[in-house]
Write a structure and sequence with these properties.
Length: 191
């Protein structure tokens, strides 16, 4: 028997078969069968599950290469999720809250380049994204300024090169004239 991920999740979090049946709209027998498959003990009465979503979060992450973390819990529409207090929560805002000590503004989404990463600190909220765009705009403006400065420098260098070339040509002509003068002085003009 394949155990549904969300049922397994609640079983491991210590919920009773009845509580799971209620939360997930399944038969209590299904929850009981899943419990047997997973070899989990009967839920203690009065056990309310993990204290906080953060507790649940930390039980469902696994470090992976590159300093990222992957989700070992279930996904809803491809988004790492968990159940807490009878509600589906997504892992990203929880990771965001762990990293920043506040709830995200708008959606928190992975910003580290690894799909579905759940490592706290690897997410950006709407305000972060706006700031990142502003920074990118500043960098672009700065690059435009640099390009303009480079063009000005290039023009000035070309101008200086032309001026030097003119000076060299002028000096060469003067030298030629001097040689002509000496030649005629020594050997006499027209001989
Ligand atoms: Zn990451």
């Amino acid at each position: 028997m394949k155990v549904r991920a969300d049922i397994a999740e609640l079983l491991r979090a210590g919920h009773s078969n009845r509580a799971i049946a209620r939360q997930l709209n399944v038969d209590a027998k299904t929850a009981a069968a899943a419990r047997a498959v997973l070899g989990l003990p009967k839920a203690k009465s009065g056990y309310r599950g993990a204290a906080t979503p953060e507790d649940l979060f930390w039980r469902r992450v696994r470090p992976v290469d590159g300093g990222h973390m992957e989700w070992t819990g279930f996904n809803v529409c491809g988004t790492p999720s968990l159940r807490h207090g009878g509600r589906n929560l997504t892992a990203y805002p929880i990771a965001y809250r762990i990293a920043h000590g506040r709830a995200p503004e708008g959606q928190a989404l992975p910003s580290c380049g690894r799909d579905h990463c759940v490592k706290p600190g690897h997410h950006a909220d709407r305000a972060d994204r706006v700031r990142a765009q502003d920074r990118a705009a500043v960098v672009r403006a700065w690059a435009r300024g640099l390009k303009k400065a480079a063009r000005v420098l290039e023009r000035e260098r070309a101008k200086a090169d032309r001026a030097r070339e003119r000076e060299r040509a002028k000096a060469a002509r003067a030298q030629e004239k001097r040689v002509d003068y000496l030649y005629s002085a020594i050997f006499g003009a027209g001989e």
